[in-house]
Amino acid sequence: MPEAVGTTELAGDLVIRAAAVADVPAVTRLDSRITGMTKPDYWADMFERYGKRPNRFFLIAEGEDSGVIGFIIGEVRAWEFGSPPSGWIFALGVDPAARLNKIGSRLFEAMCRCLAESGVDTVRTMLARDDELNMAFFRSQGMMGGPFIQLEMSLDGFAGSHG
Ligand SMILES: CC(C)(COP(=O)(O)OP(=O)(O)OC[C@H]1O[C@@H](n2cnc3c(N)ncnc32)[C@H](O)[C@@H]1OP(=O)(O)O)[C@@H](O)C(=O)NCCC(=O)NCCS
Questions:
Q1: Is the CB of 136 under 6 A from ligand 1?
Q2: Beta bridge partner(s), residue 45
Q3: How many CB atoms lie within 10 A of CB 127?
């Protein structure tokens, strides 16, 4: 039986717990409903990489009657461009039919507890500037702009240009 996370996430018929391999199909279906893309291999790989290793957390929100209705994935990352170990959240989803019931908040709180118990004192995430829904959610949790900046450029012309 997957381990329940903390003690305060049990509320009504909702439990927040560590994901099990048996949850992968349900997470794949949920992500497909959210993003419109069905990626079974990706989610199997995500479970392999984040569902069973220290300082990596793949949590599930499960309703007694509704099954898997949310997920969140995070990990402790260290020393990227000099950053001391900190928590990173890089995947989060709640069933569209179950939103605005604080399920996302409970997943976020459970993840913060896991990360804090791993010894880090900061949690970070990254999202598109125009992603108003996720921005509103993370801001509601108390997250604010941090000290890092994301840079990027096109790799057009690099492939096959060795030498
Ligand atoms: C962001 C998300 C996780 C929020 O889940 P949720 O369970 O509905 O969130 P909560 O009920 O805990 O909301 C907490 C706060 O977030 C903010 N918020 C959430 N949804 C919002 C919305 N649609 N509009 C404005 N603010 C919103 C509110 O401040 C809310 O507090 P309030 O209800 O007291 O006003 C959910 O909308 C979701 O799954 N979005 C898609 C995520 C995604 O793009 N995933 C891609 C795959 S990784």
A1: yes
A2: none
A3: 16
User: Which pLDDT value is given to residue 24?
Assistant: 98
Using CA atoms of 86, 140, 135, 60 in order, give the dihedral in degrees to the nearest 10. 60
Residue 151 Cβ inside 6 Å of ligand 1? The answer reads no
Domains of the chain: 14-140 (3.40.630.30)
Q: Using CA positions, which residue lies closest to atom 22 of ligand 1? A: 133
What's the distance, CA 123 to chain centroid?
12
Residue 2: the pLDDT is 52
Say how far apart CA 58 and CA 74 lie, in whole Å: 7
For residue 37, the CA-to-ligand 1 centroid distance in Å is 20
| pLDDT per 10-residue tile (average), the chain, 163 residues | 47 87 97 96 98 96 93 95 93 96 97 98 96 98 94 94 70
Q: Is 105 in the pocket of ligand 1 (CB under 6 A)?
A: yes
Using CA atoms, how far apart are residues 7 and 103, in angstroms rounded to an integer?
A: 15
From 27, 59, 99, give the residue whose CB has the most ligand 1 atoms within 8 Å, as the site to mutate: 99
